[in-house]
Amino acid sequence: IFELDEKNNVWKPFRTCKTHFLPNTNGAKMENGKLILAGRDTVKNQPAVMIFDEGKVDGKWRVVTMTPPDKPNLPQLCPESSLTVNGKGELTCYVRCGMMIAFWVYKSTDHGETWQVYRHEIPVLKSKMNSGKLSDGRIYWIFNVRKFGRNRLFLALSKPGEKVYSAFYTLRADDDPAINAKPQWSYPSSVE
User: CB within 8 A of 71, min separation 6: which ones?
Assistant: First the structure.
């Protein structure tokens, strides 16, 4: 973990977490005061979250594997994950699978302590996704669609306070001569 030394404008190592956890996205604060970070358990090759119980990055942490006990062998090739804190203990995590199914949707209703997995028919490409919640209460999801491969990057957006996506936008499509980029709009990240 790195932190910005604003005085010298350089990133410096802050903490090393010697664990079998590989983070995939930004951390988020839950309403119970704890921090949560989505990623994967590199030993089991399963999606997981790291929870900082004291609400501080320099505090104690623990890893919770997401795979539900009734489905211990879900196919996971490259379980990159993205987490949305919906509120009231509810979390949604989109996890890339890379096998026959492009991704799984995991839900928790107890601040990430336990997880249920859901199937879907959303035509998302087997590629890293990004999701989160904006300060105005809208949730978002950034992803690629099978039909276009990684040549287009899409954004799904809800209305403030709602959990259903109601608007869809193309963020990037095809070549971008302005930045000399070829059509590989994948591995998104976001900051508000």
Answer: 117
Q: Mention every residue, 6+ apart, whose C-beta is less than 8 A from residue 130.
A: 25, 82, 141, 142, 143, 188, 189, 190
For the entire predicted model, the pTM comes to 0.84
Which helix or strand (DSSP H or E) is residue 158 part of?
strand 152-158
- In angstroms and rounded to an integer, the radius of gyration of the C-alpha atoms of the chain is 17
pLDDT tens string 31-41:
999 999 999 88
The CA-atom distances, in angstroms, between 36 and each of 12, 98, 139 are 22, 24, 17
Q: State the sign of the Cα–Cα–Cα–Cα dihedral 169, 175, 179, 184.
A: positive
HSE-CB of 67 using CA atoms within 13 angstroms:
16
